[in-house]
Design brief:
- The protein is mainly α.
- It has one domain (2-218).
- 76% of the residues lie in helices and 0% in strands.
- It contains ten helices and no strands.
- Helix 5 (65-91) packs antiparallel against helix 6 and helix 8 packs across helix 10 (192-218).
- The two termini are 31 Å apart.
Length: 219
Amino acid sequence: MRSKIALRLIVDLILLITFILSQANLYTGNRFHEWNGTIMVLFIGVHIGLNRHWFLTHFKGNYSFRRWLNLLIILALAGIFLAVLWCAFFISRTVFTFDSIEGSKRILFIHATLSSWLLVMAGMHVGLFWKRIQNWLCRLIPTMSWDKRRGINAISRLLLVGGGVYASFSREMASKLFMLPSENYYLPHQTVVTFCLLNLSIFSFYAILTHWLTRLVKE
């Protein structure tokens, strides 16, 4: 059981790292961006394979608020991800080598916008399984008891939320999500580490909000 949990966590961690790095293409370069994205797609396939039981039980049992929310988020994730791949297929210069096509800049802009939505929806997806991830960590590390550290746990969540709010304003996420003019998508004084930390903060922000929403509705 522990080996299966460890495998799931390792796959999801690699998936998270490649996902966060995939949005820093102007810092890492296009070649790295495309090959990193290819690795991410492969690990998404592994992630789906490890969680294939969800598809087998999809039409079984009653649907609660959490199950409906999970279904909607997964459908949105799948749709956005397929659209991102479709755009990537036409603007690729390394993995898929095609000549420039008319409107490629527009497709690139749509690709970047969908990537921002993917960041939000992926965070919400993780938020639905926040408690399960904590339980997995407790099984792997018995000394890690969240119940005994409720104060630290609550403070850390508040700090992540605060960091996510700051990162959302810093990166002007509203402009990026709704295709509004924005001049700070990549700031020259930022490093790739800073950029990735901001994205990770936004990801964590939506994960925690979704976790709190499901708890509130359940209570």
